[in-house]
TrEMBL record:
Keyword Amino-acid biosynthesis (UniProt): yes
Entry-linked Pfam families: Sulfotransfer_5
GO biological process assignments: branched-chain amino acid biosynthetic process
Entry similarity comment: Belongs to the class-IV pyridoxal-phosphate-dependent aminotransferase family.
Keywords, in A-Z order: Amino-acid biosynthesis, Aminotransferase, Branched-chain amino acid biosynthesis, Transferase
Superkingdom of this protein's organism: Bacteria
Matching InterPro entries: Class-IV_PLP-Dep_Aminotrnsfr, P-loop_NTPase
Designated name of the protein: Branched-chain amino acid aminotransferase
UniProt KW Amino-acid biosynthesis keyword: yes
Length: 234
């Protein structure tokens, strides 16, 4: 099985990658389109030269690798994707070879966290618009992506991961609940910038606290992609 997990930044996507890669039967690939994304957009992300040198910059080469053999010839692989990396023209029939998961988080938490490491971030950098496009693209192809809320996993890791495995047809493995602290072989080269907290972890963090209080550009970004509360039924 090839599991494509689509997320914006600053979610539990890295922790979820560690959960899957801690299974004896599953490898992982960390943000395979990152270098191609930086090459196309010219964005000056932290560690840009190192990222460009660490991965193929040709999207077709990335797709070929994703559709090829799994790492170490393992039965399953988890592809950790950032939604904003999927630029126009990258979609194709290859997505039908994957099982898809869409990982979401409250926009205020994503914007607050991401702008601490990349203060120039705009709405196009935090993935929400692209996640909606990804959902529309997948469902238009007759695919049925599983939607997962990161805070639900943090509140009930075993229950949510068992449910996720059941939905995608993967046997449950309790090894997904914990992993050794420190850097991992599956980490992208950018890990020193972004993975400090998750490297200190040995499992999923507990429930999240209050939403951060945003102002200025950060608040505008979060409000632009936050769904208004639904009116209760009469």
């Amino acid at each position: 099985m090839k599991i494509a997990c689509w997320s914006g930044p600053r979610n539990i996507s890295t922790a979820l990658m560690y959960a899957f890669s801690n299974r004896a039967d599953c490898g992982a690939v960390d943000e395979p389109f990152y270098a191609a994304y930086l090459e196309r957009t010219g964005k000056d992300h932290p560690m840009r030269p190192e990222i460009l040198a660490s991965q193929p910059r040709d999207p077709e080469a990335v797709v070929a690798a994703l559709c090829g053999s799994n790492p170490a010839e393992l039965p399953h692989v988890y592809h950790k994707h950032m939604a904003q990396h999927m630029l126009p023209g990258l979609w194709g029939d290859w997505v039908a070879e994957m099982v898809h998961v869409i990982l979401i988080r409250h926009p205020a938490r994503v914007v607050s966290s991401f702008r601490k490491g990349y203060a120039e971030a705009g709405l196009e950098d935090v993935g929400f618009v692209q996640l909606a496009e990804i959902y529309d693209n997948l469902t238009a192809r007759g695919l049925d992506p599983v939607i997962v809320e990161g805070s639900d996993v943090r509140a009930d890791p075993e229950g949510m991961l068992r449910a996720l495995c059941d939905r995608i047809g993967l046997a449950w493995d309790p090894a997904m609940l914990e992993w050794p602290a420190g850097p991992k072989d599956v980490d992208g080269v950018w890990a020193p910038v972004w993975y400090g907290a998750v490297h200190q972890s040995t499992g999923f963090a507990g429930p999240e606290g209050e939403l951060p209080d945003l102002d200025g550009v950060a608040r505008e970004m979060a409000e632009a992609v936050t769904c208004p509360p639904r009116n209760p039924s009469p």
